[in-house]
Amino acid sequence: MFYVAILEARPSGRLQYANRFPLVETCKPEKTLQWLSDNLKTTLALSGHLIFYKLKQFIAITVGGQDAKLKCEPFINEDTLYIFGTPAFLKSTFQDLHLDHLGDTEQECICLVAIWTPSSDEYNSRATASLLPISEGNFDREAIIRAAQSRPPPSTGAKSTEFISTQTEQRPDAAYNYRPPELAPPPLAIYHPVFAQFRHSMAAPTETLEFTSQELDQASTFIDVSLRHYPDKTSRLNALQAVITCSGQKFWGERIILVDNGKKTQPDGGLAISIRDLPVLYSTLGELKNGGGDGGCDPSDQAQFVKFACRYGETGHRLLAEAGLAPRIYYCAFDETIGLWVIVMDYVEGVLCNGKLVGGEAKSLTRAIKLLHDNDLVFGDLREPNIIISKPRESVCVVDFEWCGPCKDIKEGGNVVQRRARYPTNIALSAEYNWAPGVEADGVIAKEHDNHRLQMMV
């Protein structure tokens, strides 16, 4: 017996186990997830919206499913679901998802997860005391874009003196990178598989990892001090030297080291292990830097832009990048470990389009869309925030290729190897977006839709 686990999306952003539903009667190959969604809403009296994830590894549960809630606890939010599963479109059939023979076994497993977002009426009908507070630190995308447009250029904006004022919870455009610790980002596992492996290893109890309360407290203090921003190198050094290690040393104490021929070297600081009548062992030595962009150079020389996406139009991005109409790609691949596309590209300086394009800007965007269409590709999300004016009145750079893809199914030997691009199931369809007629959730993306949006921008 196989089940879909239903997790309720709470106002706080967390997911809460709500129910499970057997799939044995619904696993006919031609049935779609849209049909399953309607069935769940009718049978379980659910109002609102459902989206589905297929688990990479099915979760075995006991007969009767008493432990189903416990087994679903790792799915605390949608970010963690990307690690354990992959999004599934509502128009996908059970055959498309390779779930058309699940009724052939008596083993009880969860193979699908449905995230249920109740309607506003559903929330309003509940007791106010039962609702978790909504974080006041959330900002809509447009507010973030407006704030980002007022930032200073990267050469000055990346300095620690700037971070003290820009890296706060009150800033819509703050980078959620734990600096300071209050700015908590998405799960660390999306950045590299080694972090997911580390989390799994640390979650397993072991007798070899025993720490005293003093060691844990000092480690926590060191992490907190290290993550905060300081106006200069001296302030950071003073804060670090106030952290005392378990051995009684200052964490980053100044060191004068004698070398050959009576010469001395003096690094910014480090840690040493000293035993009488034996040479001093330095476990840590190095130069202290207050921040990556404090050397008077442009931080774009130190890092590129990294993007994570559930889907990505790599073909379209590379096509426009070769024509100088999109950022250069250094790496682009789907990582099975985290269930996301990872794209490393050039950081493009410029300003976001916030109105009609003029002169060479309009010609540049028109050329980009024509190049895509000539290669039977569509862009889909052709809106102002995805167009960077790299050279005013001369050219633009197209970004955000998540919706980009072929305008028709691609076949090899009679088999479909890549389906035509579709709009996401959660697309915002309000009038302010000025979408073309025919644009709908999970609907196919047509060249006419791109042309409609192009006319609105040039």
TrEMBL record:
Ranges of biased composition (kind: Polar residues): 157-169
Name this polypeptide is given: Protein kinase domain-containing protein
Region annotation (Disordered) ranges: 148-172
Matching SUPFAM superfamilies: Protein kinase-like (PK-like)
InterPro entries given in the database record: Kinase-like_dom_sf
